[in-house]
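Hi U.,

Before I forget, here's the chain from the pilot set. I'm dumping it here mostly so it's searchable later in email.
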Amino acid sequence: MSTKYLFIMGGVMSSLGKGILTSSIGRILKSKDFKVNIIKFDPYLNVDAGLQNPYQHGEVFVTDDGAETDLDLGHYERFLDENLTHLSNATSGSVYSKLIEKERRGDFLGATVQVIPHLTKEIKDRIVELEEKTKPDVIIAEIGGTIGDIEGLPFLEAIREFQIEHSRGDVLFIHLTYLPHLHATDELKTKPTQHSVAELRRVGIRPDIIACRSDIPVSQDIREKISLFCDVPKNHVFSVLDVANIYEVPLKMEEEGVCDALMALWGLEKKKSNLEEWEKMVNIMNNVNQVVHIGVVGKYISLCDAYMSFTEALKHAQNPNMARVQLHWINSEDIENKSPEEMLADMDGILVPGGFGKRGIEGMVLASKFARENKVPYFGVCLGLQIAVLDYARHVLRLTHSNSTEFDPGTPYPVIDLMPEQRTIKDKGATMRLGGIDVKILPNTLAHQIYQSEQIRQRHRHRYEFNNSFKPRFENAKMVFSGMNIEKNLVEILELPSHPFFIGCQFHPELISRPTKPEPLFTHFIKAALEYSDHK
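Structure:
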């Protein structure tokens, strides 16, 4: 079988859920025993997502090979239950950068380098490279942005050319649009979709399938109207209905028959999907009754997408514990201005996620102190581990002015410090400690009890580490460093045996959690929070 290609584009407005639709189709095709890989094209000029503000673009998702990517890659991995690589994300910045590098090297032999054909070829080469290195049956490519955005035009031209260069039946296009619901007349309006498809056709692309996002079901009359005005067969117009749980989307798309339509268009024999495990997972997730209240004490809580993988990992931990996680987003600066008792007293567990910069740090330290002293389950991730260290140094070791050199370069007690290899680095992009690293777990510790293994692999994204010169002081004060970096002897996990659940990790376990395979730290954190809730 020749490789099949599917390009997914969005129209009318942004944030329609192209990433979830892409992931859902990938999941269904995988359940049909196809080998699926996904690539995300982002039109912005950043070389990668690593230096983007979380308030503008949400979290940065880190792959095992250390690529800092768009958060949609997190959805791809969670739905496919497979690790992706740097090959699955390409931005305008990375494509232009590579093209200019080639021009400076003299690869074009004096030719005038242009958007067409040189830039579009560079974009197409990313698809070819993914195919050559991973040998999938199906490649799904999501085109970021919205049809009509000027920065997305080179990508649309590239995939138009790509279709011409391949067998017509191998390359398909799905256009995801939005049908506004006019409440005054209780009807869905198709005009924005018509205009969006017209814009797509203007650049030479005719969608094979139109997927219509809406808050009420799309009637047959609406489907017929879209079919007529957008020149797409009626049975290729599908409804993408709003759902409360994103993991329902593959099941809804299976009911709609989207992948059966793709199989027919690709000329492939119809295959039965195997979504039984997925459906069981969704049913449990949707029907748990007991509620556990988790306070997420962070810096970017006004945009929850900044903590997307945390949100999903906590959802995954619901099923093994048969409990629904109720998240409470708590601005750490509010704790500084009020009190931890006022802000955190009703929480069954406290999670401090990652972040950068000095703002809000003192509120996080107070949250750690509150959790430690009141035996509330505490889970610190990356910065959250460092916060636990600052709390312990100041309030247990009495190192009053201890700090991280990230926040106070002149601190007399730099319990968190810049890694030596980071001191000479000037460029910020892609220079942190990134990607998967092996971690040694000490026996007879909570970490070992959780992981049931002496070695794990976890992903990282940070510059600052626990300062090992202070390690004896902390150990004498009964803090246990239960996970260590195998190669560099750096602290990866800390815990307090005197506390029911007080644990911090320098890595990012949320990045490897899957709905059918919850990450153990999150599962045990929720378990501890439930036990605390039962006895408080």
